[in-house]
Amino acid sequence: MYETVHCDAVTLQTADAIASSLHTNLVEWRVKPQTHGGPIVARIRPHCLSGGVRLIELSGGPFNGERSRAEIARDGDEYLGVLFQRSGSTLCKVGDSRTLVGPGEVCVWLSERPTEFEMPSQFQKLCLLIPLSRFESVLHNATAYEGLHLPTNNHLTTLLGSYLTTLSEEVAAGPDGGSSEAVDVTLELLGAAFRVYQSQFDHQPHYQLRSRILRYIEARLDDASLTPLKIAKGNGISLRYLYLVFSEQGMTVAGWVRQRRLARCRAELDDVQNTKTITEVAYRWGFNDSAHFSRLFKSSFGVSPSAYKALRAGRGI
């Protein structure tokens, strides 16, 4: 028997504090700010429900969460995670798979798989964590639903989003909100929705296409000639359809490419052993104007690339 625990929301302002709270209330995560040494803020409100099910409300500024084999080894159990993105976006990276979860969308992930979540801007989301053995009592072969992504234009997503919001804000926050009955209803609803959507998904290649496009872009970020037209041709679709795929996520193709290139540049500048100049790094990742690159970098990360590199070199990390 598990005790239902409700906690007040807490605001945390360091990566270590956020990681510690996620470890206590969810599972082990390694947290990193998207700008090294820059500010990082998260607001966490946890609910521990019956049967070992955990639910947290998480919001904050840009940061990344990673789970390597080291973090996974400290979990003590296997879980299925359900992410409901209330605002902002989350880029879920599992192996070569890339899933961009936009506002109002739902994504499923497994705790036993190395995973990285990138939150590139201010966000709000709900994270539900269910012991795999518990979920498989209502959803046979639950691990087969890893990576399931329910978009905003589906009635099942609307239903799940409304339910999870109510569960978090009204039901779980009440004195008996974490009861076994409430958890049973939640798992039955999730299981039924996943089964129905998966049967639809199997006949809709559109969502598989989106993941394929993201992989295509990621593998060609160093190509300065990577344009929306080239991406569309490389994936056998029209330019108009490519724009539609991204607009459904509230993003533009050019904006996504630019964001991913800047992240690659920042990763290179993180490496104090890297002897490339800032201009060389910029050109390496498709920016052919170093001054323009510097303005974009500062706009995205709050510090110029030269200052960022100097900070890294000064700390020797």
Automatic annotation (TrEMBL):
Transmembrane segment boundaries: none
Keywords associated with the record: DNA-binding, Transcription, Transcription regulation
Domain HTH araC/xylS-type: 211-311
SUPFAM superfamilies linked: Homeodomain-like (SSF46689)
GO terms for MF: DNA-binding transcription factor activity; sequence-specific DNA binding
Record's protein name: Transcriptional regulator, AraC family
Species of provenance: Beijerinckia indica subsp. indica (strain ATCC 9039 / DSM 1715 / NCIMB 8712)
